[in-house]
Amino acid sequence: MNNQTLTSANYAYVLSVYAPIMLTTVELAALITVILVVISLPIAYILAIKVKSDAIKNLVLLVALAPFWIDWNIRMIAWYPVFGANGFLSSIYVSILTGLGYSNVEPVSLLFTNASVIITWIQSLLLFMVVPIYLMMLRMDPIVLKAASTLRASTLKTFYYITLQWSLPGILIGSVFVFSLAMVDYATPLLVGGGLPTIGVIIWQLGSYYEWPQAMALSTLVLAIILVFVAITLRKVSITRILY
Asked: The dihedral of CA 216, 219, 225, 227: what is its sign?
């Protein structure tokens, strides 16, 4: 389509052509959101409840924040020595199998795969999930946990009825951050995923070829998906509960 005027035909076109890619992107964004919830809950719990020193808490958060001082693209390229055939992960893989007695073990490259994109997203988006959950857990009254222990509630029940319920606003707000950022990210699928077709990459490509109406139509559809997700989330939790 060479027409540079945004019309309803552009929306029909991008839906007919890019609907499978939109679905794949939503699935990947949802997957990384779930993974980060599972990873972030114990991290936030340890920081908020188990670690008593404020200095240690601040140090951990500072270390987690340090990568954000580096340009996003540089951070993506820095993963090449980790995922490559001669990289860190491949060396560990070869060493383990060789140690188990296997011979002629070939190096394995994770670069330009879905796995490399997911691992990179875990590193780059983890802080956006941990911080809201951590802020909610900081406000959890330790007396409530002690009361549950006194009443001989199991660890699983204590976690579900107290810790998880109290942290739910933080989980939902963190999910909005992670889901939205994964939906529109193009640098990670492009540089680490080898051009993995996601909505972010397609919009970037359309813009590179000056297909502005298609890029705008696709961007609007992605924004609509994100807004629906945000609206559903905000029906369950108020962001002011985290801020105040």
From this structure: negative
